[in-house]
């Protein structure tokens, strides 16, 4: 039996809204709608959904503004799937910079939209507060503040996203390809896209401390390990 989600769709195209409503409700999910960014943002703040499906091009506030405002003002992490007809890497990066968790380019199959919404709700533990904690590491997903042993860590955007993705998956190991897909979708940078960002993450997360938390699982991928586990 699948999870029953409360999904908010902010989309100004009536036919697409109607099709999404039919598809979500057919699978047992509750759906609410807004046709413009301002009303949609207010709905999301007043009654945070399990997943927000957000169009990029909206009247009132565009999707990037809605996303950024929700991240700044909501009292919990709302997983955001951004919809757009634009498929360039720059548009995706702008969406992720604003706080989107996933990105789907129109036209799309309803089954893929549903699958991504279900995955987002599980991955981000929908409805939980913004804070993540693993051992002495704490991450505030709203402010982007990261502390270890009470010390504030300075992280650039992509290393912070890598750390947050690994923390949300903890204690699971993520493959290299899974990390790349989560970070850049189907348009990763040409050169080795993870190497330099993982180096920067290790410099901030592990170098100043006695015990490393970022582990390379050889032949598999990467994971976080708590620095407060009991040692054998």
UniProtKB/TrEMBL annotation:
Record-given protein name: Response regulator
PTM annotation (4-aspartylphosphate): residues: 55
Protein source organism: Lysobacter antibioticus
SMART domains in UniProt: REC, Trans_reg_C
Entry GO CC: cytosol; protein-DNA complex
Record-linked SUPFAM superfamilies: C-terminal effector domain of the bipartite response regulators, CheY-like
Positions in coiled-coil regions: none
One BP annotation, GO: regulation of DNA-templated transcription
Classification via PROSITE patterns: OMPR_PHOB, RESPONSE_REGULATORY
The organism's taxonomic lineage, starting at the top: Bacteria, Pseudomonadati, Pseudomonadota, Gammaproteobacteria, Lysobacterales
Sequence ranges assigned to domain OmpR/PhoB-type in this UniProt record: 129-226
DNA-binding is among the record's keywords: yes
Response regulatory domain sequence ranges: 6-121
Keywords from the UniProt entry: DNA-binding, Phosphoprotein, Transcription, Transcription regulation, Two-component regulatory system
Keyword check for Transcription regulation: yes
């Amino acid at each position: 039996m699948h999870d029953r989600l409360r999904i908010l769709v902010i989309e100004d195209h009536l036919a697409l809204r109607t099709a999404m409503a039919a598809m979500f409700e057919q699978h047992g999910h509750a759906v609410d709608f807004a046709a413009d960014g301002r009303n949609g943002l207010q709905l999301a703040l007043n009654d945070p959904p399990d997943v927000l499906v957000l169009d990029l091009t909206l009247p009132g506030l565009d999707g990037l503004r809605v996303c950024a405002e929700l991240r700044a003002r909501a009292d919990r992490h709302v997983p955001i799937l951004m919809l757009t007809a634009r498929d360039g890497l720059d548009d995706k990066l702008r969406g992720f910079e604003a706080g989107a968790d996933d990105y789907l380019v129109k036209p799309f199959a309803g089954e893929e939209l549903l699958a991504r919404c279900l995955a987002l709700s599980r991955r981000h533990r929908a409805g939980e507060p913004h804070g993540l904690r693993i051992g002495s590491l704490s991450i505030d997903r709203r402010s982007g503040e990261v502390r270890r042993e009470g010390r504030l860590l300075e992280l650039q955007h992509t290393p912070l996203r890598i750390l947050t993705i690994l923390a949300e998956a903890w204690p699971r190991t993520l493959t290299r390809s899974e990390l790349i897909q989560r970070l850049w979708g189907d348009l990763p940078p040409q050169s080795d896209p993870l190497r330099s960002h993982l180096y920067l993450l290790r410099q901030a997360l592990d170098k100043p401390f006695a015990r490393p938390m970022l582990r390379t699982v050889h032949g598999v991928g990467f994971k976080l390990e708590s620095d407060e586990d009991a040692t054998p």
